[in-house]
Amino acid sequence: MKPTLVIMAAGMASRYGSMKQIQGFGPNGETIMDYSIYDAIKAGFGKVVFIIRKDFADDFKKIFDPKLDGKIDVEYVYQELDAFIGAIAIPAERKKPWGTAHAILCAHGAVSGPFAVINADDFYGTDAFVKANNFLVTDCDEDTYGIVAYNLNNTLSEHGSVSRGVIEVGDNGQLLSINERLKIYRENGQIINEDGTTKMPIPEEAKASMNFWCFHPSIFPYIREEFATFLGRSLSDPKSEFLIPFVADQFIKSGRGEIKVIPTSAPWFGVTYKEDAPIVQSSLDKLIDEKTYPVKLW
Question: Which helix (H) or strand (E) holds 77?
Answer without folding.
Answer: strand 73-78
